[in-house]
Amino acid sequence: MTPWHSRASAAARLSALSVVLWLLSGLAMPAPALQLTAEEERRILRHGPWPPASRPDPSNRVSGTPAAIAFGRTLFFDPRLSVSGTISCATCHQPDRAWADGRTRSRGHRTVERNAPSLFNLRFNRWFGWDGAHDTLWAQNLRPLLDWREMGIGPAGAARLVRSDRQLSCGYRRAFGAAPGEDDDLILVDLAKALAALLETLVTGRTPFDDFRDALARNDAAGQARYPAAAVRGLRLFIGRGNCAVCHFGPAFTNGEFADAGVPHFIEAGRVDPGRHGGIRRLRSSPYTLLGRFNDDPQRSTAAGTRHVRLRESAFGEFRVPGLRNVALTAPYMHAGSLRTLADVVHHYSTIDEERLHAGGERILRRLDLSERERSDLVSFLETLTEQPRRPVVRKPAHVQCR
Amino acid sequence: MVRHGRPALAAAFALLLAFALPPAASQAAACARPADWTGGTKTAGEVWTAWWRPDPAPIKVSAHFSIRFHLCGPPVSRVSVRGWMPDHRHGMNYRPVVALNGGSGTVDGLLFHMPGLWQLILGIRGETARETLIAETVLE
After folding, report:
1. Domains parsed from chain B with CATH numbers
2. CB A122 within 8 A of CB A129
């Protein structure tokens, strides 16, 4: 049972705790520099175990099926899914670049407003895209297929391609159990669902941090000692004074929501990226959501967020809190790639201009004024979130005759 | 529904009520846990006493949950529910919906998206009175 209590009883407990802490403070010996407190240990343990349990996406009837994963892999690398025949998903999400493209803002047929995020660990998200305009991975996959600046093939073009190409038609039939029908929208959504089945498999591997965290959980001193001292110091900042773990919470290092990180959101002179505020408005006007006809789950069992999301004024200029696993591989950072390195990101938060935050009275981000060593320690910690060994890169499938 | 123009003022108003008005001890004591419940928390105010429990329990950070509640006191016409993080001075990113059936009801669409101290604020309105009850929980 959650420890609910009234305010009066909470105050009484706090007072009692304060007395105990005050008494103990006079008795405590100075702690070694890297000895973690019980509170720090509890906070560190929240970031695991990894990977968390997962289940197929009930809104996608081919989630987790091998035939759909294979079909999604074919589609991911196929430039014919763009209106020009020159841009594939892999143009901006390159397997060798941690499923990103290394650019500040990505370029399909045109340069877009935002940075191409990595595709790691998407299956654990509640919202998709920097603005969370999509409530499923398959709906997010529709975005580049519909936007002419990215791939822009659209429903009619996609349906025509799949119906006319023997190999794609075969892959569709294997994945979905029937030949592509007459409903162009449905075929386009099904392609997005096959792509989602592939992307669900991109879960990062274990990291040095996970080894440390698990050693902590089983009280294994030798295992803990293998973790670099600089990373421990950075981790303490991350969960403590830095306040990073308030948003970068849990095993995936994200609470799945949105925040104003004080990053300028001007796209160009006179044009502003509304971020989450615009994302919610787009979600509500989209036919491709968990509340629409393309959801394969008749119970709508995962649609609570879509039903209840609130259009807040403070959402203007907020962007998705990204997960941090493999973050050292995914530069540049922030929604428009405005920060080049992890050191730049840490420097940004250390010197954040609180006047630029559209916080509406919120008190989360504060200028930290970290020392040079503290900034370096935080980067050391973030680098330990990189999987080791690196997982094999997913390649374009060899041409195999589909029958 | 008890509507408040500014969250900070709303919190202050709620706290004033919680502190300034001593619970009606006899009414609170007489308010029994619903017979089909095995858990739940009782929060007493001046006019109403509430039993409530989350589903699923315990509440987890960034996971949707619902609340079932049962109110003892005079007839209730409206109930509103919201979440508030006093240390951060922000509420939820989601708008919960209350289904009221007599003195009982459910609240769907709740989500506490950060660890720390959260307040669940229940605004109750009857024909002749209104009251705000607050329960607190610390999410790890």
Report:
1. 7-20+41-139 (2.60.40.1930)
2. no
Residues A350-353: contacts with CB under 8 Å, at least 24 apart? A350/A374, A350/A375, A352/A261, A352/A262, A353/A262
Mutate to test the interface with A, among B6, B42, B113, B118 (most CBs of A within 10 A): B113
Question: Which tens digits make up the pLDDT trace of A375-395?
Answer: 999 999 999 999 998 888 888
Looking at the complex, does the CB of residue A308 fall below 8 Å from at least one CB of chain B? Answer: yes
What interhelical angle do A137-146 and A184-199 show, nearest 10?
120
Report all structural domains of chain A as residue ranges with CATH numbers, in order of start.
Answer: 66-199 (1.10.760.10)
In tens, the pLDDT along B30-80 reads 899 999 998 899 999 999 999 999 999 999 999 999 999 999 999 999 999
pLDDT in tens, A73-116: 999 999 999 999 999 999 999 999 999 999 999 999 999 999 99
- What distance in Å separates the CA atoms of residue A336 and residue A105, rounded to the nearest whole number? 6
- The interface pTM score, or ipTM, of the predicted complex is 0.88
Which of helix, strand or coil describes residue B125?
A: strand
Residue where the block lists tokens 């846990």: B33
